[in-house]
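I had to read the description of the data format several times before I understood it. The format is easy to grasp once an entry is in front of the reader. For illustration, here is how one protein appears when written out as sequence plus structure tokens:
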Amino acid sequence: MPQSSQIPLDARVTALNIHPLKSGRAMPVDEADVGYDGLAGDRRFMLVDPEGTFITQRECQTLAQISAVPQAGGVDLQKGDASLSVRFAGDRRMMVRVWSSSVDAACADDAANETLSSWLGRPVRLVHMDDKAERTVGAEWAGAPASVGFADGFPILITTTGSLDALNRTLASLNQPSVGMDRFRTNILIDHDGAWDEDLWEAIEIGGIRFDLVKPCTRCIMTTQDQKTGERTGGNPIEALRVERMSADRRVAGVLFGWNAVPRGTGPIAVGAPVRILSTRSERWPMKRRG
């Protein structure tokens, strides 16, 4: 049952990120407009194969080298010295898949798709979650279907500095180098010293907007990849998370870092904004004991 917060919280938003192109580079912002489907501009564009299945860094590491800046009616993309400006016509569409979701998305023209295919060395198409596209997920966790763009599962991902520090201490104990928060592709980074305290946060408030933390986030091989080059190098967060962050709940299998959140209001938030706990959980998420 929800409880009044017993956790002293001296916390502020220390970073905001959008990822305009799914699996492309993060775009730090000082302010962001929160919609029911996430931060404005986050994961509104995506690359798919010719059959319409989504492509990520998991199988195409080069995506980490592509930056994207949303523009009116489209997006500007860059990879190294090469750049591409894409605008979408609403009548050119295709059905695409993100995990179990099917979405009727706007599709880029042939010339843009050919350029992007040459960048990645494989046939791809660029699609856009425009105003005509709809996708909802997570009813079993959020209490009702949540609107979302091309994100894996939920509108917002929240992480904390204290948990990253704890992870890096574990990496040091394994004689591995530390990693940055960019490996975890967060939307809202909260500056808070307590490691894994977010496991107990049921709902928080930022800028007058309530965010329900509905499901812990399982982590994959992308956390082992440098988010500028896509190379699998440096510290391995998966190995560190296995030490104390292996889920014991079969509903969410694997290692956990950060929480998926659903906004219950809309409006602007900014770096530096205070974070207030609205309600807490009575128990932490169950973890397997090492050894």
Notes: Confidence is low (pLDDT under 50) at residues 1-8. Residues 33 and 268 are 4 Å apart (CA to CA). The two ends are 31 Å apart (CA to CA).
